[in-house]
Design goal:
Oligomer: single chain
Strand content: 15-25%
Distance between the termini: 43 Å
Structural class: alpha/beta
CATH architecture of the largest domain: 3-Layer(aba) Sandwich
Radius of gyration: 26 Å
Number of domains: 3
Mean pLDDT: 94
Shape: globular
Largest sheet: 9 strands, mixed
Bound molecules: xanthosine-5'-monophosphate
CATH topology of the largest domain: Rossmann fold
CATH superfamily of the largest domain: HUPs
Low-confidence stretches: 334-345
Helix content: 25-40%
Length: 512
């Protein structure tokens, strides 16, 4: 098992970012709730503990606390913001409201050399977000750095190896954040950096073989990154004991079905069953314009198609799924909050929890960027590994209004042209997602001497780190102009193209 850091989540909006920053340095970590007991923690055999920030005041009634015996385990601890204040309070220092709130970039002055601050310049820029601050250090602690609003911006006790930072080292605006975390992980916790995707693959192959034995596994393949990586990993582990099921719901992009079949069946020789159920889905969607009803219908039909194919596979014990670590945390987090609810509709197009299979979820410890790295490790082509996310309900939520075959055909062509141009001009990999949307309005145009009354295509391209928030991508005007010209000239039935310049929030990435 890899060395592990345990991050305790006090409700910070940055907790997953902390985890990603730790893993970027090749140290495995997991996120646990503050209710974790010393015994549970010890079972993880952590090399170190990080206490996250959080929105509460440590002295407010009901503020999340920590089992005090965790502090006596002899495991190094780094408290960030709320985590630092909690350490100060629990160890006999004091915390109070600051006279000035510090929010955003601020100056940090390191005045006392120490292992945590090794290699950090005397003066640097850090990101702060606090109202409270440590007002008296606990016994045994030294002040290591200060900022304009916090006398104790960094505190440490080298003997017990317990440290606190008032700023956020995980945020990119903290210029030496990476170095602070590196010092904690390597100089203080003694980690060696053994978390690599190569070792992950090796370990998973053993684990999958041990779990599956000689039984049969099915895996729903969507062509997206996660399910593609699951399929390849399983195939590597158990060969033809795996069968993949790909549901062609008639709502996929141009050439998508052929590409998936070519990649997985023809190239990787992974047994693949394709449910060609497009007509069934389109019949069920006839006359439906409400987005949520579309999602429900597609979800229902997907399960029917999948189950039909699964039955045809004969006796199957296991179902493999591409669940990722953020899904795991959000589904069990005590601080699930709004992010958990916004995401529920995204499970549409997936499978219900009560299917009669045992689950195999080999990616449940990974973040998306790690899944991509595993894909590369397994030799998947960049066209699969670097793919933009695509919603389960497919083009049905991009053909606004009723979904019909002629309208899907218009959207497919326009979308393919846009994506083709983005690839040619080096923009595909610079955006999180890009696509075309077919609007349910007709507008007037003129082609030759003729008045036209035809469809509008909206183009959308966004930058994002996780899809939860997003900014519209500043694509060059020349690129947009070229895309518009080609779409109007080449796609029959389109006489106008617009570009979506809204961010999320308050808009969403998809239009429906
Ligand atoms: P929104 O539109 O909510 O999308 O900003 C955020 C991310 O989720 C994808 N998305 C979906 N994925 N089923 C899915 O599997 C859905 O119903 C669904 N709706 C949106 C969207 O493409 C973006 O990546």
């Amino acid at each position: 098992m890899p060395e592990r850091i345990v991050i305790i989540d006090f409700g910070s909006q940055y907790v997953q970012l902390i985890a990603r920053r730790v893993r970027e340095q090749h140290v495995f970590c997991t996120i646990e709730p503050p209710t974790i007991s010393a015994a549970e923690l010890r079972a993880h055999r952590p090399k170190g503990i990080i206490l996250s920030g959080g929105p509460a005041s440590v002295y407010a009634p009901g503020a999340p606390q920590l089992d005090p015996s965790l502090l006596g385990l002899g495991v190094p601890i780094l408290g960030i913001c709320y985590g630092m204040q909690l350490l100060a309070q629990m160890l006999g220092g004091s915390v109070g409201p600051g006279t000035r709130r510090e929010y955003g970039r601020t100056r940090l002055d390191v005045h006392t050399p120490n292992r945590l601050c090794r290699g950090i310049p005397r003066r640097s820029i850090v990101w702060m977000s606090h109202g409270d601050k440590v007002t008296a250090l606990p016994p045994g602690f030294h002040a290591l750095a200060h900022s304009p609003g916090a006398e104790y911006a960094v505190m440490g006790d080298d003997t017990r190896r317990i440290y606190g930072v008032q700023f956020h080292p995980e945020v990119a605006h903290t210029v030496y954040g990476r170095e602070f975390l590196h010092n904690f992980l390597f100089a203080i916790c003694g980690c060696t950096g053994d978390w690599t995707m190569r070792s992950f693959v090796r370990h998973q192959i053993h684990a999958i073989r041990a779990q599956v034995g000689d039984k049969h596994v099915i895996c729903g393949l969507s062509g997206g990154v996660d399910s593609s990586v699951v399929a390849c990993l399983l195939h590597k582990a158990i060969g033809d004991q795996l069968t993949c099921i790909f549901v062609d719901n008639g709502l996929l992009r141009k050439n998508e079905v052929e590409d998936v079949v070519r990649t997985f069946h023809d190239h990787y020789h992974i047994p693949l069953r394709v449910a060609r159920d497009g007509p069934v889905f389109l019949r069920a969607l006839r006359g439906v314009t409400d987005p949520e009803r579309k999602r429900k219908i597609i979800g229902r039909e997907f399960i029917r198609s999948f189950e039909r194919e699964a039955r045809a596979c004969g006796p199957v014990e296991f179902l493999a799924q591409g669940t990722l670590y953020p899904d795991v945390i959000e589904s069990r987090s005590a601080f699930g909050g709004p992010s958990a609810t916004i995401k529920t509709h995204h499970n549409v197009g997936g499978l219900p929890k009560d299917l009669k299979f045992k689950l195999i979820e080999p990616l449940r410890d990974l973040f998306k960027d790690e899944v991509r790295a595993v894909g590369r490790e397994l030799g998947l082509p960049e066209s699969v590994v670097g793919r933009h996310p695509f919603p389960g309900p497919g083009l049905a939520v991009r053909v606004l209004g009723e979904v019909t075959e002629p309208r899907l055909a218009i959207l497919r062509e326009a979308d393919a042209i846009f994506i083709d141009i983005l690839r040619q001009r080096g923009w595909y990999d610079r955006v999180w997602q890009a696509f075309a949307v077919l609007l349910p309005v007709h507008t007037v145009g003129v082609m030759g001497d003729e008045r036209t009354y035809e469809n509008v295509i909206a183009l959308r391209a966004v930058t994002s780190v996780d899809g939860m928030t997003a900014d519209w991508a500043p694509l060059p005007h020349a690129l947009l102009g070229y895309a518009a010209t080609r779409i109007i000239n080449e796609v029959k039935g389109v006489n106008r193209v617009v570009y979506d310049i809204s961010s999320k929030p308050p808009s969403t990435i998809e239009w429906e």
